[in-house]
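User: Please run a holo structure prediction.
Assistant: Happy to. Please share the sequence and the ligand.
User: Here you go; the ligand is glutathione.
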Amino acid sequence: MPDLSRFPITKKWPAQHPDRIQLYSLPTPNGIKVSVMLEETGLPYEPHLVRFDANDQSSPEFLSLNPYGKIPAIIDPDGPGGQPLPLFESGAILIYLADKTRQFLPHDGAQRYETIQWLMFQMGGVGPMFGQVGFFHKFAGKHYEDKRPRDRYIEESRRLLRVLNQRLSDRAWIMGEDYTIADMAILPWVRNLIGFYEAADLVGIGDFPDVTRVLHSFLARPSVKKAVNIPARPKAS
Ligand SMILES: N[C@@H](CCC(=O)N[C@@H](CS)C(=O)NCC(=O)O)C(=O)O
């Protein structure tokens, strides 16, 4: 049985199954990406809930794994060379799990880099811009009198949606017939923009029908249906 005791995070979130991938997360768009990948690949894993309402992400134990204090993060007890591998940043985790399982990312050739290109489009564009729409529309920023920052992020988000809509206009998934980690990274953010952030009208989602078509295909997948609630949030009392 692997010994994970050298990772301080296991003091706060003990591993019941140290032979499984340890997932530290919450079902936010970045968290869901990794839960979807774990469900799709069938890798055995143990989810641990990181509660933002308790500021768990800023605890010394969590920061020992990700000094940036953001979910998701993992420890794979069976990493390269059979040694435990701690990893944060959802894009890096997706590439790692894809390489480990040889699923959802071509192993070599041009298609590999094209898939990574779209993954980076999400990491550098979709996530940060949609996230700012959330801040200025739904959270603290909605009280700001000056609407120019909000409008800037709406415009940037529309620009990203335009690119996605064009890409998807003649494709089932971002990479065509093959469902990949690029879809797993991008679609949870579209779901969040029009769902939790309630920004569908604001960004004019009706202008991007191919994005919503592919979002529905994604949400219909059994693994996705399950993953959007992993790790389970505590029941409201
Ligand atoms: N680039 C990071 C971003 C992760 C991220 O922003 N996570 C958010 C939840 S979606 C978070 O942990 N926020 C808590 C905080 O900022 O304190 C990744 O993709 O993993």
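The mean pLDDT is 97.
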